[in-house]
Please model this.
Amino acid sequence: MSILTFRNVSLTYPARTGRGGTGDKCVLDGINLQVASDELVAIIGRSGSGKTSLLNLAAGFLTPTSGTITVDGAPVTGPGADRAVVFQDDALYPWLDARDNIAFPLKLKGVPLAERRARADALLARVGLADAGDRRIWELSGGMRQRVGIARALAAEPRFLLLDEPLGALDALTRTRMQDFLLRIKAESGAGAVLITHSIEEALLLGTRVVVLAPNPGRLTAEIEAGFNAEILNGAAVADVKASPIFKRMHAGLTGLIHAGEEELAA
Amino acid sequence: MSILTFRNVSLTYPARTGRGGTGDKCVLDGINLQVASDELVAIIGRSGSGKTSLLNLAAGFLTPTSGTITVDGAPVTGPGADRAVVFQDDALYPWLDARDNIAFPLKLKGVPLAERRARADALLARVGLADAGDRRIWELSGGMRQRVGIARALAAEPRFLLLDEPLGALDALTRTRMQDFLLRIKAESGAGAVLITHSIEEALLLGTRVVVLAPNPGRLTAEIEAGFNAEILNGAAVADVKASPIFKRMHAGLTGLIHAGEEELAA
Amino acid sequence: MILSTELDVLPIDAKDTEPARATRPIPTALISTLTVGVILGLWGLASAYALVSPVFLPSPRQVVIALYNLVVKGFVDATLAEHVGASLTRIFGALIASIIIGIPAGLAIGTSRVGRGILDPIVEFLRPLPPLAYLPLVIIWVGIGEASKITVIALSMLPSIILSTSAGVRAVSKEHINAARSLGAGKRQVLTEVVLPSAVPSILTGIRIALGAGWTTLVAAELVAATSGIGFMIQSAAQFLVTDIVISGIIVIALIAIFLEYIARLIERRLVPWASHR
Amino acid sequence: MILSTELDVLPIDAKDTEPARATRPIPTALISTLTVGVILGLWGLASAYALVSPVFLPSPRQVVIALYNLVVKGFVDATLAEHVGASLTRIFGALIASIIIGIPAGLAIGTSRVGRGILDPIVEFLRPLPPLAYLPLVIIWVGIGEASKITVIALSMLPSIILSTSAGVRAVSKEHINAARSLGAGKRQVLTEVVLPSAVPSILTGIRIALGAGWTTLVAAELVAATSGIGFMIQSAAQFLVTDIVISGIIVIALIAIFLEYIARLIERRLVPWASHR
Amino acid sequence: EEVTLNIGYQPIVEPSRVPQADGTYEKVTGAKINWQKFDGGADVIAAIASGSLDIGYVGSSPLAAASSRELPIETIFVVGLISEAEALAVKGIEKPEDLAGKKIATPFVSTAHYSLLTALKHWNVDPKSVEILNLRPPEIAAAWERGDLDGAYVWDPVLSELKKSGKVLATSADVAEWGGPTFDAWIVSKKFAEEHPDVVTAFVKVTGDATAAYRANPDAWNATSPEAEKIARLTGAKQDEVPALLKGYIFPTLEEQAGEALLGGGTVKAVADTSAFLLEQGKIPAALSDYKPYVSTRWVTDATKLAY
Ligand SMILES: Nc1ncnc2c1ncn2[C@@H]1O[C@H](COP(=O)(O)OP(=O)(O)OP(=O)(O)O)[C@@H](O)[C@H]1O
Ligand SMILES: Nc1ncnc2c1ncn2[C@@H]1O[C@H](COP(=O)(O)OP(=O)(O)OP(=O)(O)O)[C@@H](O)[C@H]1O
Ligand SMILES: [Mg+2]
Ligand SMILES: [Mg+2]
Model:
């Protein structure tokens, strides 16, 4: 069992000089967070509160200004195969078709062509794109690209999945299916996951825990144990879960937390 | 009053030859739709059902394989200032900062620098990014970029706004505010609008009409007069509207329509 | 006209995709043919009315005859085919050498601090050097064999390949690199699987520029100790004011270069249909 | 070392942004200085042990003396400053001319079917032509004054500017163009407001390559009735085996070119910080 | 073991092109010969210095420059004294005094350049008062055609082109009389000469025989002769112009070579004079006190004894 730990992490984007330069921007302040590999921690927060920045730190794309990030005690010094990322803007490779994008991490591992194609095709089918393997990236719709991005990250079989609004561009039905898929594949693979989402419902359904990131600078202001995902995996109907009073109470509570300190601003 | 009309529009992407070539792909079939400038038509549908393609046709980026698209009877032969688009992937210009991106359509019209900056700043404030004007595009979060894209389209003062999931990357609160903003600015400006969204709730709240696009090939399978937007503009509380039985009934109905013909597939 | 590979016109006035009634106004090939026709016509007129002395601008007819003689009899002890063969060998030798050296060097400059520290000053020093100035030094160092000619041509090709490669590398999307690294790519893999493919359009442009530069340097390279080659042929003819041969040589160079360019564009079309989709 | 503008190293081994403890391993400038030092050292050794005849590889000391004499007394009737001034005027004249012609031509080729039809065959014909071959024709048309030298240099600069411009144009994102048109941009505005800025990184690369090519052609250009100019100076010295002057000239050219390259990179840094963010 | 002989020639119309075309050199020297074409003496000298060439063809100016830089070379055969082949052709100029302020072109560093400067000195015309331009022969023709030049000191066939619309003010034959002879010569790298003296002797012998063949009956080498065809084929000259081009030189025979006028003394003096002149012009850093080591009669003397 692996553990991803944020200890007192802060992040300041340095000032940009030159024309239209900006000042230093403190984006995250004193973040403490632990994600174990049997968990899925959902992060919710306002637009611009620093969710993507937090994920980029975990991925190793950014180095914290202060504090440390570790995986099983070893400091994160850069990106690595143990932490696969699904990007907010799909970062798919335009020179590869959908199948080869998904097979990309397998190619990196040296999996033979036929096998990696087969595995990519299986993943394509599981994200509902069985017949889109030959398509170029620009021939896919926004939602399709998101799903290819998810499949690509899964193909890497990482210890942690870092998901940045992976289901944002999907319609309700496809989204529900993908939620179910994510839940199951996470359980199967035993990978830990960090999920950024704008849907409080999604956060509650998928997350073992839900944390709230408040903006300016980004701080974790709340943390809730959810646990509905276990129920669903044990066979509970999603509709029933959503209809349960405790779910509704938590939903309302989180909504309030996100809105906290904003009403006066809006007034 | 202007009217945007789709008459019997079909679209087939031509086959791509060469390595990994694909066959012809019929994406839209026999679309008939009218959007008047006092309307906001919301389009909902599965991922890959052809919503973006439909919008690209209206924008003039694509030419229909058959059928005609007209604005006030004049055929659409290409993109034009009368139909401003908010893209699913923000198509912002990386060589301009946020403010100049918004001021871009004003620059095209020859508005003097000071004035267009002032107007861009006003729009920035209205989308909640008052202090982000100097930022480069890559210094903005996903949700911020979406809002800049919306502000840029509004700055063009078009006759029709073509919005492709413009609020998809926003948290609930920001999204609610942007919905309200869109509703009001649309009413103020008298522009017609086509809104693609994955949120049935959003479609019902903002749309004067909601149409459902079924996939493979994309066809309009339902059209519902919503009208809640008028209530909201007249002062009704959004929460009350959402709680009303008729809203709930419509929501359930649309959900059913989108899922129609899919359950057997999923089985 | 072979130039029209229809692959690189940006649809500012065409639609992104035009599924139906793709009514192409006038085919580019036709316009190009017309252009060439007009130029040939002007040339014919200029020489017919002797606007320029025939010593410097022979008539198209004369040049055609000279070309025919070149093919059949040859000039300065070699037929046209032999001259072309010799020059092509040098150009391709130089191209291969400069690709083998230039792409890794460009990658090193674009990706690694140490690589850049070492190579940048060397490249920036070599880049502006006029071949006519260092010709004696090249002779001293590599002798007068084929190696010296290939060296001179390669030195003129290298800079554009190195520069386009490193420019292509610099324009690689950071997200693409980050994605690869988080999917398990090592540094080498990032280079081969992301940076290199991303830079391919830029590298191809560099190779096209390099080919042009190579031809440009051909005459200078063949100034020294050549016994055949198009540049040698032109040079020999110029010495004795045999202008029809000079112009024939120029035309032959242009035709070969245009043919190679055509192939380069075909390759470009195959390799980088995605260039405007990133 | 002035080459290190720290702007174009891709962070394959660095982080995207390194807000804190940006521990740069070894500064590139230092590595570059070392590289230059090593080369100078090798040169010194080679000449000290007379590995190459001193006629062809004078010692660094001799070259420094030659440089000093060049500055103070001059060579072939002009001081170093006069030679440099003459050549710089030609290079910049040619650069301006080829920018004025090349960028619009590249835009036309990249964006319009008709423009491409007309210009492509002309450009592809001119591109590979060796200056040494067309020198007489240039003289017939523009005489032996400064114009001919500038023409020859400009002809060597044009191709890379045209090609990089049209390559840059082809890589413009279709979405960016579509966005502009739906926001009310006319064709001309799409060109000036979207296509041109998008192509700027590519155009700058083209200009950098062009500058190198210009220096490369300098000697050939100054074969034509020059009485001063670095190329003329080198040429004259080379004929009499005054190798220390030749090497001094080469070093002067390299230093100037490196300085210009440095400026080009500064401009690049100012204009296109977004190149890897699209 | 077979000797490999690398020869750098220039595309000059002169008799030794014929044995070159016939393969006589190979036959007589018994060496494997690589013929390399050069367009200027400076490159030939660089190639000899680099060890890539053993024997090379140079004009008197580059020869003087190379000797002054003390390169290990030796003059083995004076190919030809330049006479009518190079001349100063002018337009709108009647007498030498008119040259002041006029544009005169010549290929710098060539024998023509040297002759022009010698002629000016002879006429007491200050070279600074004349605008002397550096142009290669084809470019001279073009600039003349365009009317950019008032005169040019150049060689055939460009010279004959200029003569069509201009007049000759002086030829190299005149200049030679005024004390500035110019010539072309074969030189050898000293190292090669030491290692393979017999090859060098054989080379000189064949060259001398070719000259002798021409001198015996110059008129036989007419435009349709096989000799003219061979020369045209190797140089790129037009075949019907070959006889006229040959007439522009005085080709000394093998017997004349060793004489006081040539390798036996005249050549040394000419090289020394040329060097002194180049030094005066600031073209070379220093001249030597003695140029004898760079000229040798040994080869022509040995060659006269050789028979094949
Ligand atoms: N490279 C950068 N330089 C400077 N500021 C940046 C940079 N990237 C992001 N920011 C700023 O950091 C803040 C947080 O951005 P981040 O992308 O982490 O937000 P987010 O929570 O992911 O928002 P969203 O939900 O809209 O995607 C924003 O104010 C943004 O403007
Ligand atoms: N350029 C193209 N060439 C070929 N097929 C395309 C192209 N663009 C889109 N398609 C295909 O057309 C179909 C509809 O795509 P479209 O982008 O319109 O869907 P969408 O409804 O917007 O989906 P989403 O909600 O996921 O954005 C998809 O199957 C897609 O693969
Ligand atoms: Mg984000
Ligand atoms: Mg879409």
Notes: Residues 242 and 248 of chain A are 7 Å apart (CA to CA).
